[in-house]
Amino acid sequence: MALFRLGPSRDDDSGLVRGDGVFMRAAEMRDFEAWAALRERSRAFLTPWEPTWAEDELTRPAFRRRLRRQAEEMERDEAYPLLIFRAQDRALVGGLTIGQVRRGVAQTAAIGYWMGQEHAGKGYMSRALRAALAHCFGPLRLHRVEAACVPENLASLRVLERCGFQREGYARAYLRIDGAWRDHLLFAFLDSDPPPPPPGLGR
To answer: Which segments of 36-135 are extended strands (E)?
Structure first.
C-alpha cells in the first residue's frame, strides 16, 4: 500500500484520504511538535478512554519509534495509522487508525480514533470516520470494519451511531483502558450496509 508508506516530507496533496472539511495522512516527523502539543493539552480529556500513556509518551524519541513501528505495520498491511487535519488551515485535530487488518476469508479491520479536546464536538471526527469508511471499502477492499466503545464514552458512542455503525454486542473486560480492564460495546459496518448519512449542520 504505497499510499501510506512514510516517505520524505512534502507539501503536495498526494497520499491523502479526503473527507468533508478534513483530510488524513500518515504521520511524519514534521508533525511531532503539533502532535505532542495537542496531546498534552488534551491529556486529561483523553486518558480515561485510552491505554495508559508511557512515561516518555510525548517525547521526540518516542514519536520517532512510533513512526518506525507504524511504517512497519503499513508495509505489512496490518494497520494504517492516520492523523486528521482540518482542511481549511491544515491544523492537526486528532488521529484515526485502521488497525488489526485481517485478510483471507475475513477482510476485516478495527477502527479507533482520538480527538483533541479543543476540537471535540465540532463534527471533525464524524467527517473523518466517513472518509475512513470510504477508504476501507474502496482502496483497502475490506468487507467489515469493527469498532469498540466504552459504554460511558457517550461522545464516541454518538459518533459511531451517527456514521451508521450497527451495535452488535457487549464484551466484558475487553480492553485495558487507563489501567483497568473495561467492558466495551461492539459495533460494525459492512460494505453491504447503506452508506453513512451525510453530515448534518456542524456534524
So the answer is: 80-86, 92-102, 108-115
Kindly state whether residue 196 falls inside one of the protein's structural domains: no
Q: pLDDT tens across 99-126, in order?
A: 999 999 999 999 999 999 999 999 999 9
DSSP state of 199: P
Q: Which three cell numbers stand for residue 44?
A: 486529561
| Structural domain that includes position 151 | 16-190
Look at residue 197 and tell me if it is in a domain: no
Is the separation of the CB atoms in 165 and 136 below 8 Å? no
- Residue 166, C-alpha cell as written in the block: 450497527
CATH number, position 86: 3.40.630.30
DSSP 171: E
What does the angle CA 59 – CA 60 – CA 63 come to, to the nearest 5 degrees? Answer: 90
State residue 200's pLDDT score: 62
Q: How many distinct structural domains can be found in the chain?
A: 1
112: left (phi over 0), alpha (psi -120 to 50) or beta: beta
User: Cα dihedral sign for 163, 169, 174, 178?
Assistant: positive
- Amino acid 150: pLDDT: 96
* pLDDT reading at 6 higher than 50: no
Burial class (CB in 10 A: 0-12, 13-18, 19+), 152: exposed
Query: Considering the entire predicted model, what is its pTM?
Result: 0.89
Amino acid at 195: P
